[in-house]
Amino acid sequence: MNNISVSKALFSKAQESIPGGVNSPVRAFKSVGGTPIFMQKAKGAYLYDVDGNQYIDYIASWGPMILGHAYGPVVKAIQEYAAYSTSYGAPTELEIKMAELIKSMAPNVDLIRMVSSGTEACMSAIRVARGYTSRNKIIKFEGCYHGHADSFLVKAGSGVATFNIQSVPGVTAGVSADTLTCAYNDLEAVQQLAASHKGEIAAIIVEPVAGNMGCILPAPGFLEGLRSICDQEGILLIFDEVMTGFRLAPGGAQELLKVDADLVTYGKVIGAGMPVGAFGGKKEIMQVVAPLGSVYQAGTLSGNPIAMIAGYTLLSELKSNPGIYKELEEKTLYLKKGLDEVLAAWGQPYVINQLGSMISIHFSEQAITDFASAGAANNARFAKYFHAMLNRGIYLPPSAFESWFLNNALTKEDLDKTIQATGECMAEL
Ligand code: PMP
Fold first, then answer.
1. Residues 6 or more apart from 390 whose CB is under 8 A from it?
2. Nearest-angstrom CA–CA distance, 99 and 62
3. Which of 69, 97, 115, 146 is the most buried (most CB within 10 A)?
4. pLDDT value at position 78?
5. pLDDT, the chain, mean
6. Which residues belong to CATH 3.40.640.10 in the chain?
7. Is 122 close to ligand 1, i.e. is its CB under 6 Å away?
8. Is the C-beta atom of 242 inside 6 A of ligand 1?
């Protein structure tokens, strides 16, 4: 058992001044129980807590740290640019370089606007879709999470699912009424909704690979089917690539899965751990955004120079060395194979879903293809697994409703330790 006395003391102090002691709910370990670990520093694949414990990290700050923590070139660039000023509130050349770099990597992006979070990116993309189509409703999928803007908190994944929040006080019935939901991977349900709300739906927003109910893959034909429904009905297809963007491939899920979106949203990797998001798409659509058009969207810190240089440095590295994606996938497949072996030997039901460097385990007899199947899994068992792993120095997401993210600093030894620890935990459970 790790000594986490300093974390315990900090958590109790934090609760006196921060709601629940955390600035984002999943960090509170509420669904898995126990005390959240307070971090002091991280390097490469390892986190170090305030009690001096070391952990192999499978969260990567929920995605951004794709090349590991405190990645040398990113740290150096931040230090250099911080000395010039941390913000100007006026344009910089860096923003053009960032936009051009993103356009050179991501398909279907003619114009891109930088924001400061994935939430802002998705919220703005929806506004653009509504402005462009002059329609009000959107379709989202149960268990997908697109940030905490009002329209997305209907049957959302991630923390909303973790805490089993059915309806969010503070979100008006009027807003919720404009959000239609379907089960992930249920194309027929989308077809029916599109038919019964003909001419009313502005956009379908989807995580092309879902990561907020664990990792769930799109069934063959699902994304293609959404594309054709959108084409038929004049609906915009929005890929929320906040998790998948620059993670699954340089051009994200659009590139890997070969399906085009009309609008795409980014976050996480795009900012290398700084608060960054972006939304972009075809010129014809994006030109409704102010000041070109009248769909208003703005941000005091949007395109912040420190955030831009951090993201630019990381994306440049990913672009110039696309072999990174192969390495990441090989590591993830190695992990998957090892986990499969120890879990099969354990003999109880489990499911591992994986694509690229996203992977998750559900303790379930049935395939995990949507929110209902993810919710029906033995998530109490996941909580025990999580703690047994944490005690062995392995930091998994503290919820079965989250994908794990591999970073490229992970070594074969780290993966072997993780596999071995899983075997030991299963014997313990
Ligand atoms: N979209 C997806 C797919 C996400 O996973 C998240 C966050 N986990 C968001 C949007 C919201 O991003 P942020 O937390 O940066 O607001």
1. 2, 34, 37, 55, 396
2. 23
3. 146
4. 98
5. 97
6. 72-320
7. yes
8. yes
Please tell me what DSSP assigns to residue 117.
S
What is the tens place of the pLDDT at every residue in 130-182? 999 999 999 999 999 999 999 998 888 888 877 777 778 888 888 989 999 99
CB of residue 145 inside a 6 A radius of ligand 1: yes
Domain 5-70+322-428 is found in CATH 3.90.1150.10: yes
Peptide bond into 291 cis (omega under 30): yes
Pocket test for ligand 1, best of 59, 65, 114, 119 (most atoms within 8 A of CB): 119
Per-residue tokens: 352: 């591992």
DSSP per position, 213-225: SS-BPPPTTHHHH
pLDDT for residue 161: 78
Separation of CA 278 from chain center:
13
Choice among 137, 268, 350, 414 that is catalytic: 268
Give distance in angstroms: CA of 61 to centre of ligand 1: 12
- Given a cut of 90, whether residue 80 has pLDDT beyond it is yes
Q: Which of 36, 282, 240, 34 is nearest to 151 (CA)?
A: 240
What is the DSSP annotation of 263-296? EEEE-GGGGTTSS-EEEEE-HHHHTTBTTTSSB-
Neighbours of 263 (CB within 10 A): 27
| Mutation choice for ligand 1 from 144, 243, 270, CB with most ligand atoms inside 8 A | 243
The answer to whether ipTM exceeds 0.95 is: yes
How many angstroms separate the alpha carbon of residue 223 from the centre of ligand 1?
Answer: 20
pLDDT given at position 24 = 96
Is 297's C-beta closer than 6 angstroms to any atom of ligand 1?
no
Determine whether 240 is an active site residue: yes
Domain 72-320, second-level architecture: 3-Layer(aba) Sandwich (3.40)
Q: Where along the chain do the CATH 3.90.1150.10 domains lie?
A: 5-70+322-428
Please confirm, yes or no, whether 140 is among the known catalytic residues: no
Residue 358 has pLDDT above 80, yes or no: yes
Residue 274's CB: how many other CB atoms inside 10 A? 18
For residue 211, the CA-to-ligand 1 centroid distance in Å is 10
Q: State yes or no: is 145 an active-site residue.
A: yes
Residue 271: the pLDDT is 98
pLDDT digits (tens, 9 = 90+) for 154-166: 888 888 877 777 7
CA of 24, closest atom in ligand 1: 14
Is the per-residue pLDDT at 188 higher than 80? yes
The fraction of the chain above a pLDDT of 90, given in percent, is 93
Q: Give the distance (Å) from ligand 1 centre to CA of residue 426.
A: 31
What is the whole-number distance in angstroms between the Cα of residue 44 and the centre of ligand 1? Answer: 23
